[in-house]
Amino acid sequence: MKAFPIIVTLLCSAAGPTFNSFAQENDAAKFGSLHHFWYVQTGFQSTIRQSWAPKDSENGLLLESVETSEHRLQVQPGLVLDLPKNDQYAARTRLEFLGAADSQMNSWKSFWEEKDYNHFPFALHKIEQSYRLQSQLDYFLMDRLTLGLEADYEYTRGGLNLGRKQRDLESRSGELGQAYRLKPKVDIDITATDHLEVYSLFLKNLDKTSDLNTYKTYDADKKSFGLQYRREWNEPELALRLHGFRYHFVFNDLSKDFARTGLMAELKYRMLDDKLTLAALGGYWQDRFELPTPRIRDCQSSIVENSDNQSLVYCSRQDRRTSIGAQVEYDIKDTLRLSFRYTFGQNQNDSLKVYDFDQQSLLLALTWSGDGAKAYLPKHESERLEGLDLLDGR
């Protein structure tokens, strides 16, 4: 279970439009006294990861390089409701459902050998489902000052068995987790084209599959916060976004606690009467773990375990993460958008090689939205640019 839910795939450093820019792009239809619009997104994601894993040898367990791949099909419908806006406040509620199924090479092999639908990589009983309720309230305190609050809830479960027996070990059914998020913020319009946002983050992620992986981003003496700067130009049509943050992740397992400090950047260029959008993405952050990691021999050794009763060496752990990417969005028509995104991420640890990895990911998605609303990438994907993704191996 990852944050909202964080899929370790392509979208490591990519972001969709912010709430404000999205609201400006949409001309929603009226639903009684409410404005509303809906959307459906389907997509395919593919990820290739090069990492290190233990292997038996005469000297014990040695680290060797391994490559893993994962493919993912997903569909995500959603409905957005806007309360009538006045001079003092604006409110929005978003309801979303995400259904996604993963495929790995061993799944295809089992399906091919067994000729059994239960082993089909994208079978219905393997579909993970997420249900989200996301709300935002903005209060216009002054001409250039806005107070805002975002409140989100998400429930995730696995397995659409539809009466079918789940006979393979790859299927997961029942509740997988829940997540709660509060984000109070202050928006300052420095000029008509320069905007500043300061916020605090209160996130709690309950992992029902392993209580030790449950975490939050706050504690009595630990706070998580961020600062974002946005700038737009009309000629040419450019948009720049810079995001700095400092998060604390507090787990039920104290050995996993760490603080994350980072900077993200996104530059967008719109052309062809806003039909084509090109974007460059990049990010860098450091994870500093509070407790040292136990190892045998020394911190630089590639032996992670052996049969000798050697005393343990405790090594401080600090990871560095770099991510770059490119994104292309093309509006086939006002209600249909085709998106392609590629990212490359690298995690490095100078003393503990087991945490090093490289990852390449790509996404191809088609988004259909109704009532003349502009298509967009769903909000949970943009969380990756916020530095909230927790990678495998934590």
The description of the largest β-sheet is: 18 strands, antiparallel
The count of β-strands is 20
Subunit arrangement of the protein: single chain
Order of helix and strand elements from N to C terminus: HEEEEHEEEEEEEEEEEEEEEEH
Identify the overall geometry.
globular
Fraction of residues in helices? Answer: under 10%
CATH level-4 homologous superfamily: monomeric porin ompg
Sheet-strand content, in percent, reads over 45%
Structural descriptors:
394 residues; mainly beta; two-stranded antiparallel sheet; disordered C terminus
Can I get a quick summary?
With 394 residues, the protein is mainly β. The chain has helices at residues 19-25, 105-114, 379-382; strands spanning 29-31, 34-57, 60-82, 89-103, 128-142, 145-158, 174-189, 194-200, 202-207, 215-216, 225-233, 238-251, 258-271, 276-289, 293-296, 303-305, 312-315, 318-333, 336-348, 357-369.
Please provide a written account of the structure.
With about 400 residues, the protein is mostly beta strands. The chain has a single domain (about 10-385), classed as Beta Barrel (Porin). About 5% of the residues lie in helices and about 60% in strands. It is built from three helices and 20 strands. It has helices spanning about 20-25, 105-115, 380; strands at about 30, 35-55, 60-80, 90-105, 130-140, 145-160, 175-190, 195-200, 200-205, 215, 225-235, 240-250, 260-270, 275-290, 295, 305, 310-315, 320-335, 335-350, 355-370. The strands form two sheets. The chain has an 18-stranded antiparallel sheet that branches. A two-stranded antiparallel ribbon has the order 15-17. Strand 2 (about 35-55) and strand 3 (about 60-80) form a beta hairpin. The radius of gyration is 22 Å and the shape is globular. Residues about 1-30, about 165-170, about 375-385 and about 390-394 have low confidence and may be disordered.
